Please model this.
Amino acid sequence: MRMVFGLVLLLGIGLAGFAVYLANGYVNSYRVALAKAQSSESVATIEVFVATERLNYGDRLEKSKVRVVKFPRAAVPEGTFLERGSAAPYSKPWDELDEDTQEHLKTLATAQYRPKRDGLRIKDIPDLFPDTGEERYVLRSIEKGEAIIASKVTEPGQDAGITSRLGDGMQAFSIKVDVASGVSGFLRPGDRIAVYWTGRVSSFADESARGSNDVTKLIESGVKLIAVDQSAYGDKASTTIARTVTVSARPQQVAALAQAQSTGRLSLALVGAGDTSEVGPVEVDQMSLLGLTAPVPQEVVEVEREQICTIRTRKGGEMVEIPIPCTN
Model:
């Protein structure tokens, strides 16, 4: 009897061990399958530089202020500096291109490539910290944990002043403004504006109708602001009433703005960030504003006088004129 009990006990233990073995094999196969599934769905990453603290305009970019993190390769923003391999290509804004480059890009425009929107594709970007030791400065604020992008920092060795915001062939020109002409303090560096001139135009086309007329005319559209007062930092949340704004313009535009500012009053209007529409000539005077027409000068018609012919004769002691028919 004891032998039978021992055999049954050994058989039970064997069956229990076999069950544990089968369960363990099932769990291991499940873990392997789960690991394969997770590996097949893993996201490819790349190491990029991000800021370890908030960086404001004009700050010097130091190695202690950045760190390297892994970022999804498919979601890396254009121009992001990589830990190895300079930076991802990006499109330089249209307003920052020199005039010759703009004209060249216009000739390359196709249905798939719109240079006015895309600007110029930049591929050769130096490393964030080049071996030459030249330093970079911040052009636009960078938040903590934000990727360092080429468009937000200067070129190596370049200062973060106004000159760093001027493209080739562009010059800085200041315009006096007040609360009305300066769009009530809503202007920010980086905005695009339209410039209107208001003044009095004299007309000498007709000497008999010599006069003057007040005119408002659009003289520049889409001019880029690079500074407001003495600040080129455009990320302020509050509005400030500026006294001067500085724009980036070509020499011909600078001459036109200087002439306009000295002969009349300039007013600014904000242009939408994504507005690429072409604006034609705009001019309004007092007559067209009020729907009036200039008075037509009346023509003076001279009436031909009737010719009277006379002869003189003496009657007694006086001379008299007697009318007679004219023969010629």
